[in-house]
Amino acid sequence: MAELPRMSFEKPALPATGIVVVLAGDGAAFGPFGRALDEAAGGSLGRAAQAADFKGKSKSFVDIYAPTGLTVDRVLIAGLGDPAKLTDAEWSALGGAVCARLADSAELATVLIERPDGEEVGPDAAAAFACGAKLGAYRFDKYKSRRSDDDTPKRAPRRIIIATADPRRAKKAFAVLDAVSDGTLLARDLVNEPANVLGPQEFAARAKELAALGVDVTVLTEKDMARRGMNALLAVGQGSERGSRLVVMRWNGAGKGSKKKPVVFVGKGVVFDTGGISIKPAAGMEDMKGDMAGAACVVGLMHALAARKAKVDAVGVIGIVENMPDGKAQRPGDIVTSMSKQTIEVINTDAEGRLVLADVLTYVQKEFKPAFIVDLATLTGAIIVALGHHYAGLFSNDDELAARLTAAGEATGERVWRMPLAREYDKLIDSKFADMKNTGGRWAGSITAAQFLQRFIQEGVAWAHLDIAGTAMESPQTDTNKSWASGFGVRLLDRLVADHYEG
Known about the structure:
Shape: elongated
Binding site for Mn(2+) 1: 273, 350, 352
Binding site for Mn(2+) 2: 268, 273, 291, 352
CATH topology of the largest domain: Aminopeptidase
Structural class: alpha/beta
Organism: Tepidamorphus gemmatus
Oligomer: single chain
Keywords: Aminopeptidase, Cytoplasm, Hydrolase, Manganese, Metal-binding, Protease
Distance between the termini: 36 Å
């Protein structure tokens, strides 16, 4: 992966080397240090902005190279928009946009975080800016050995100094956000890896590395799962030469004596999905290396919670399988008995993720008696038809949990949209031969998939399902993500925990 910039926080001062980023409002209005810089440059910064018809619009830019009267190499004027209306998510997006503009230009960049009206920019905003710059600098290029000039990824500055009024508090705030950023980047790494490198066993090994942060990690083999009756999950992987795994990650951050129920997160981890006997079309099948993005998010989330020492007891469980068409693979028409003892008629072997989740959901309820369960899965193409690539689908049996997830999504920019659950849809997965079938047909595909999962949720257990097929991979690039894999869900769920379940 491309080298990420090192972030540091200092008191504002006029730098002598490298690049200086000056934030400006309408009419190239600078803050105190920006004005001092402009004065030292004989007013050339303001004149350059006026000549470029700079209006101060957010993420608009003016470049001045080798500015007169200054010893720095370059001044970048960055539009701030209305600073009074900027959310932390927008500060983060601005950081990503600035980092992209700085690519391949210098070893050192200093960003003057200040408002043109002289009001102090809070430490959380400065930290969010730095976090956005780091996320935006991520590139997955580890397998590129030779590059032309056209495909060489642009490298961010090796060091970015955030010059802010309260560097100590900004650094403290950034330490928390940085842990979450690292979790997001871990999720991106996992999703971007090719399936020949990241099989079930290798994925489990990567999850076990969380032990270094104090996470208790247990890996169940196929024999372990067979003893527990997890036949739905095992049926998905039986056509692969690579054995399936279940990984249980526990972070006990609430402290000894806590009697609170743990919060539980479940992820679908299909490391590659051919569709099985119901094989997918060849076009685009290479993207199915990302069908484990839900599991990647859970691993990234557990990293974030442990790294920032979240005061919560959290459990992350991922079912890792490979769906391949082999002589031993399950067939359309097969009937399997899940861990819950409910039977499932397999209509389409490409509707496999719900079989994996069915057993994992049963397992976590039996083992952990959760405060709530949130599962994440790249479950259906139907959710992309409904919502495109900008929102994940949210299905829930609990209004409070759904509202909290929606609010966390708005705060982080990882947005979710609630979809319906209803008996009318549930009837579509009734089977003539078993308790249910694994697909309800062409219509309302994401809803019937969620209805399937709900059949494995015990009465009284708060549950939410996030269908992230449109947001976790090949989603539109943003200021904070230039990667095929987005790491969607880590920041969303960390915010959910931080706002409502710690302490």
